Amino acid sequence: MNEPRHDDDPEPADRFPAGPLYVPVRPGPSACAARLFRTPLGGRTAVAFTSERRLTTALGAGHAWVRLAEGALRALTAPLGVTVVTVDPRFTAPAPAPVTPVAPRVPALRTV
Questions:
Q1: Residue (of 62, 34, 60, 61) closest to 48 by Cα position
Q2: Is 23 buried (19+), middle (13-18) or exposed (0-12) by CB count in 10 A?
Q3: What's the CA gap between 63 and 25, in Å, rounded?
Q4: Domain locations in the chain as residue ranges
Q5: Which InterPro entries does UniProt cross-reference here (predicted)?
Q6: Which helix or strand (DSSP H or E) is residue 81 part of?
Q7: What is the Cα–Cα distance from 27 to 42, expressed in whole angstroms?
Q8: Across all residues in the chain, what is the average pLDDT?
Q9: How would you write 7-56 as a 3-class SS string?
Q10: Contact 44/82 with Cβ under 8 angstroms?
Q11: How many whole angstroms separate alpha carbon 102 and alpha carbon 26?
Q12: How many Cβ atoms from other residues are within 10 Å of residue 25's Cβ?
């Protein structure tokens, strides 16, 4: 059985983009940390984009990023138990708004 060449194969085996990706990061005091996200089912995933425009469209302008190869991103997140890399997610939910504490309506009982 002959193995199909990638240019002849309608669905190539290697589905990862070639070259460095745009990876969102969180700047820290001494270095940057790759941001991790949640999948719709709650699993953790690393996220990367194939262009700065796609990153900006999904996460907003002014978001910090670094260029990393997909293998380097996997190597960074594997020790954290993150094995999924999502490339060019089409939907991202906004960060949750901080919850302000609500004063109780019922007065607290006093102990004597």
A1: 34
A2: buried
A3: 8
A4: 21-87
A5: SAV_915-like_dom (IPR049975)
A6: none
A7: 24
A8: 80
A9: CCCCCCCCCCCCCCEEEEEEECCCCEEECEEECCCCCEEEEEECCHHHHH
A10: yes
A11: 31
A12: 16
| 61 Cα distance to chain centroid | 16
How many angstroms from the chain centroid is the CA of residue 69? 14
Yes or no: say if 74 and 42 are a contact pair by the CB < 8 Å rule.
no
What predicted TM-score, i.e. pTM, was given to this entire model? 0.66
Neighbouring CB atoms inside 10 A of 68's CB total: 19
Could you tell me if 44 and 37 are in contact, meaning their C-beta atoms sit under 8 angstroms apart? yes
Q: Record the tokens describing residue 70, joined without a space.
A: 């997909």
Q: Interior CA angle at 88 toward 55 and 72, to 5°?
A: 90
State the DSSP H helix or E strand holding residue 65, giving kind and residue range, or none if neither.
strand 65-68
